[in-house]
Amino acid sequence: MQRKQPLCCQALRTIILNNLICMLFSQPFLACILCSLVLLSCKKDKEEAAPRPDANKITLWAGQDTVITLAGASAQYTVVSGNTDIARVALQDNRLHITTDIPGTTTIHITDQAHHTDSFRLEAISVAGIWRRRVVNGTLQNNVTVDCADALLTQTLKDELKEEVIKADMLYGLTFADYSAAYEEARFGGARSQGTYSYHNLKLTLTRNNTTEEFTIRPDGPRKMGLEQDLTVQYKTLYPTKGITRVTIIRYFNFVPLL
């Protein structure tokens, strides 16, 4: 990041070096004063430098929040988001709190009292693009949680929901359009179907063949995600006397970049 800065210590030393050497013997008192001025200027430059964020670009999921620790927080400074519809910012001590809302890219500006400014880009992403199920050593990656008073039923549901061995009818991949609400899902056996989707605040809704499913995005960086589906109501209806309080499955996906 580029910014204007006052004359730095190196430049000051270069300008006065020769004069200072000559004056050390002819006018020692004045030489001491100049040395003191150089040291004070160096200290002032260090204190007034605008705080620098940890990275020049940050990528978050729209709806995801984060906190960045700023360096050089001894000076008073302000932060401004270039687009508050995409991201809102707030300061607390030396910590920058960022709240994202909608997908897009904006710039965050950090300015100190001496009007020195640092900036960094913030990109808020959505599910738009191509995603494929995460497979490790031939095993689908997912996580099943079952909270139930009946131990036998708990294990039965875990075995039923835990997708490990790949089958033809299992979900293989999802493709989400960027500028429309269309999406396509693919199965390992080759079958494909289309529908519409909506995304907001890490919530994903898929509608296909008059059936609507809701998911929660569990971010794992900008190129990986867990797609969590809450099946609690469905299984409480099936087993109303078994004390079921929670049934969820998280299917893990990797983003596939376009070549």
From TrEMBL:
Spans traversing the lipid bilayer: 20-40
Keywords: Membrane, Transmembrane, Transmembrane helix
Name the record gives this protein: Pilus formation protein N-terminal domain-containing protein
